[in-house]
Amino acid sequence: MSKKLFVLLFLAIPFAGLAQKAVLKPQQLLQDVKVLAADSMAGRRSGTEGNRMAQAYIVSRFKEIGLKEFKGTYEQPFKIDSKRVVVDKATNLIGYIPGKSDNVIVISAHYDHIGTNKGEVFNGADDNASGVGALLAAATYFRQHKPRHTLIFAAFDGEELGLQGANAFLESAPVPLQHILLNVNMDMLSINSKGELYASGTHHYPFLKPLLDKVAPRAKAKLVLGHDKPEQGHDDWTNQSDHYQFHKRQIPYVYFGVEDHPHYHKATDEFSNVNAAFYPDAAALVIDFIKLADAELDKRKQ
Questions:
Q1: What angle (nearest 5°) sits at the alpha carbon of residue 158, between those of residues 294 and 96?
Q2: With the C-alpha atoms ordered 237, 243, 248, 253, is the resulting torsion angle positive or negative?
Q3: All domains in the chain, ordered by first residue
Q4: I need a labelling partner for 287 at 20 to 30 A (CA). Which of 55, 148, 151, 208 fits?
């Protein structure tokens, strides 16, 4: 055999591990963020017309994907009554994919943001349209690849007003809390220049670390563990998003997010600042983890 022919045959062999399977469609992922972060939604503050527009869009995507409803509806209404604000009808959006087991993984992302201030719209493209986009991408994947566990997809309202939606969900959960094995929460996935997506929670739930260690880096994004130790002060993310409500009830969690950036809670958190190379790979890493958790969680949990 000639050396030239040998080289051609060698190059034709697929290299396992060098190329990862696509688990989402980047165009749809980015489109979901673009729609939710549009000026027309006026920052999606709980109780506003813009928030209701976001609800309608997410419900339309749930239907398109084919998520099942609980008791004939995706909506879980609740009231926010805090020192900061009263919202008579806030709304979580909940759909699910039945698995072979009654045990549940809850995949969550909040869709509300902080609204407008002095005529400026705070569109919250990263915070947290990006998490909702990834949630929809995960739902699409698992609708096409039947999971072992039942997967609940929860788009929470009221996060910016004190993690209200996650609390309401757990106070009136559609399944017994003892059946919830894990919360996978996503909050800010799309703006990072170092290619780093943090996975927080293994300090509290070390049995999850071997699963996260098995998630291979993608071309533009890799997982970094951390931001979950009490001595880190504000850099401890344990209570900084909806996963905290699960943690308070001793339900394990992994929180996926990027470190704070100059656009955090600023009017510049616009779709134009989403890192279109990093974000799809960051969302894909979350799906990669959910696949592993779905396959191996029962063996790892102690």
A1: 30
A2: negative
A3: 20-300 (3.40.630.10)
A4: 55
